[in-house]
Design brief:
Layout (H helix, E strand, L loop, with lengths): L13 E4 L6 E4 L2 H12 L3 E6 L4 E6 L4 E5 L3 E5 L4 E6 L8 H17 L2 E5 L1 H7 L3
Parallel strand pairs: 7-8
Antiparallel strand pairs: 1-2, 3-6, 4-5, 6-7
Amino acid sequence: MKRPRRRRGHYKRGSYISLKSGKEFKFRSGWEANYMIHLDKDGSVSDWSYESVSIDYVSNVRTGRKRKYYPDFIVEYLDGRKELVEIKPKKRLNQLTVKKKIDAATDWCSTNAYTFKVLTEVELKQMGVI
């Protein structure tokens, strides 16, 4: 993993080379970087990718403006399960934009036979990721 750099008080950013796929992924937070390491160490995970799918959602109901949402991770397990994972601080879960993205991801997952999971600092601490 390349050394993450801090930018004027913002989140850690950098890149990580997956041990499972050999691909290089950019990350935008320390939590995402730690989760990448966790996925590589998890023996039940067969493959994972970062921001590899886009989901359309309506950002403005009045005008009908659509935007694209890129969930953080797609995780595939050895038993065939597939998950879409978003990492967010708990305090941001009540923001309207985040709720719209979560709703769009939930709909996408039900259509594509995935499960959707939002991980906050609470779950990441329980998992030992942070």
